[in-house]
């Protein structure tokens, strides 16, 4: 069995590092992106089991990443976890896709880890 892969997309370096460390400790290989442009390049180049996506980023935001995924990798949307400081009432009206889970900052780490493990199929019997 190959090691699951995750893409962590966040413009905040310390948050990106923290989430990457947590995900790696689950036995998941991690790539990171600082903005939506880097994320789209990674998505086009590699395959992932789970995506952790911030919505509010400079240049290319998370909504554009979701648009790209909808057009090119719709099977990945149900394995996408939004990690955002945007209040849920604000982003839900702009969200066109069903994603697996939404985590608002500050994160509930136990719930985040459980959702990462679920998306990467680490808890499957």
Polypeptide structure, described:
The chain is an alpha/beta fold. The chain has one domain: Rossmann fold (3-Layer(aba) Sandwich). The chain is 39% helix and 18% strand. The protein is built from five helices and five strands, in the order E-H-E-H-E-H-E-H-E-H. Strands 2-1-3-4-5 form a five-stranded parallel sheet, with helices on both faces. Strand 4, helix 4 and strand 5 form a beta-alpha-beta unit. Helix 2 runs parallel beside helix 3. The longest helix has 12 residues. The protein is globular and about 35 Å long. It starts with a strand and ends in a 6-residue tail after the last helix. 29% of the residues are buried. The model has no long low-confidence stretch (mean pLDDT 88).
Outline of this structure?
The chain is α/β, with parallel strands linked by helices and 125 residues long. It has helices at 13-24, 36-45, 62-72, 88-92, 109-119; strands at 5-9, 29-33, 50-53, 80-84, 101-104.
């Amino acid at each position: 069995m190959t090691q699951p892969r995750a893409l962590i997309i966040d413009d905040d370096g310390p948050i990106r590092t923290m989430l990457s460390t947590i995900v790696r400790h689950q036995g998941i290989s991690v790539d990171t992106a600082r903005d939506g442009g880097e994320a789209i390049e990674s998505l086009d180049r590699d395959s992932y089991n789970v995506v952790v996506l911030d919505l509010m980023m400079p240049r290319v935001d998370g909504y554009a990443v979701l648009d790209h995924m909808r057009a090119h990798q719709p099977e990945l949307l149900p394995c996408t976890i939004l990690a955002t400081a945007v209040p849920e009432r604000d982003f839900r009206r702009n969200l066109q896709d069903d994603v697996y889970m939404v985590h608002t900052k500050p994160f509930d780490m136990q719930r985040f880890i459980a959702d990462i493990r679920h998306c990467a199929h680490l808890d499957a019997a």
